[in-house]
Design brief:
Blueprint (H helix, E strand, L loop, with lengths): L6 H9 L5 E2 L10 H8 L3 H10 L11 H8 L10 E4 L1 H13 L5 E6 L4 H8 L3 E6 L10 H7 L4 E7 L11 H13 L3 E5 L15 H4 L3 E6 L12 E5 L2 H14 L5 H12 L1 H24 L4 E3 L7 E6 L5 H12 L1 E2 L1 E2 L8 E5 L4 H18 L1
This protein binds pyridoxal-5'-phosphate.
Length: 374
């Protein structure tokens, strides 16, 4: 089956090797196991002694109970039976499309976003329509446009909240309006929520799985918990028909998740407050550095992010985003992601939640580069 090249992943694979200043990745200061134990105060020796005694079978096919309890606590109305563990959010998104989308179903996806949300349904033969997020509209969905795009064949509306790459955040009122539109045509909403809770202000971000009977929340350990190496994500959804399909399709391509990953994830989930607390401090500090830098730039502008770990920066000189990011990587060691990877131009994505020193130095290198152009 044909599928479009995954532009962000291809770019990362190719350009990571030039990275001295990594402003490309979207994680928040990844944790080592030692740091995880230090942060949570859990007893490392005891944890590994217990883990070492466990038989490494398939484990719980539908997920380790302690892991699912930890996930349930991230929602208001979700029960453990409403949760399916997957291999990362990438595995969760894939499983949703693989289970639900038939050729010629209409699927509406916001764009820019993580490419899975439109290229996978396209590869399954769906009639994919884009709901463009623009800086003029603060990278939020235009609801009149969405109303025009839905029809009785609409199977799924895909959103990404908070949004990668722009860092925009859909508030509850707007989310309710999107739900009303989805409900009017009996469509599911897939909300990729891998950055949920990583907000620059203290507002609470509701999950679509709590608000909508056909809401599908996708999330993982990668961003919120800074544990992308624990390849574990999940689907949370209260719709029994969809859940039955997810389980059936999952049996064909993964059986169960890694028991080792699930044990580490369960420990991290128990300490959600501590980890998200650490990460919120980190992203706010980094945002301040980024925001001050942008304020001092003549040729760069942006819509301030409200959540997540990334922002889209626009420049006013004549160069493609590919050339700009290629040259910044090769000439200055600054690893960024060009706008063309998100089907948009004259902009690049900054993954700004790095060590403050790397961020400052990387941004300085971008300033040097722009100055040398003039
Ligand atoms: C919006 C979004 N969804 C899904 C993923 C995949 O995440 P995971 O590591 O959980 O597979 C990413 C990774 O960058 C992402 O940004």
């Amino acid at each position: 089956m044909k599928i479009a090249p995954f532009k962000v992943e291809d770019w990362m694979n190719e350009y990571e090797k030039y990275s001295i200043y990594d402003l490309g990745n979207t994680t928040v200061q990844t944790l080592s196991l030692d740091e995880l134990f230090e942060l949570t105060g859990e007893n490392k020796q005891e944890f590994f002694d217990n883990l070492s005694k466990q038989k490494l079978g398939y484990g719980y096919i539908k997920g380790l109970p302690a892991f699912k309890t930890g996930v349930k606590n991230l929602y208001n109305t979700i029960e453990t039976d409403d949760i399916i563990p997957t291999i990362g959010a990438a595995g969760a998104n894939h499983l949703v499309f693989y289970s639900l989308v038939e050729p010629s179903d209409r699927v509406i996806s916001v764009i820019p976003t993580y490419q899975q949300l439109y290229s996978i349904p396209q590869s399954f033969g769906a009639d994919v329509k884009y709901l463009r997020l623009t800086p003029e509209n603060k990278f939020l969905p235009d609801l009149d446009e969405l109303k025009k795009l839905v029809n009785e064949k609409t199977k799924l509306i895909c959103i990404n909240n908070p949004n990668n790459p722009s860092g925009s955040l859909i508030d509850e009122k707007t989310l309710q309006e999107i739900i009303e539109i989805a409900r009017s045509v009996n469509a599911y909403i897939l909300s990729d929520e891998v950055y949920r809770g990583l907000n620059l202000t203290d507002e609470y971000t509701p999950s679509v799985a709590d608000l909508y009977e056909k809401g599908i929340s996708v999330c993982s350990m990668s961003k919120i918990f800074s544990l992308a190496g624990v390849r574990l994500g999940w689907i949370a959804c209260k719709d029994n028909e969809a859940m039955g399909k997810f389980i059936r399709h999952r049996e064909y391509n993964m059986i169960s998740c890694s028991l080792l990953d699930e044990n580490i994830a369960a420990l991290a989930l128990k300490h959600y407050d501590k980890i998200i607390g650490r990460n919120k401090i980190a992203i706010r500090k980094c945002f301040e550095i980024l925001d001050n830098w942008v304020a001092g730039q003549k040729h760069i502008s942006y819509t301030k992010p409200r959540a997540g770990t990334t922002a889209m920066l626009y420049y006013d000189f004549d160069m493609t985003s590919e050339e700009l990011c290629d040259r910044l990587a090769k000439e200055k060691g600054v690893f960024l992601t060009p706008g063309f990877c998100f089907e948009t131009e004259h902009c690049f994505r900054v993954g700004y939640c790095k060590s403050p020193d790397v961020l400052k130095q990387g941004l300085e290198k971008i300033s040097d580069f722009i100055q040398e152009l003039n």
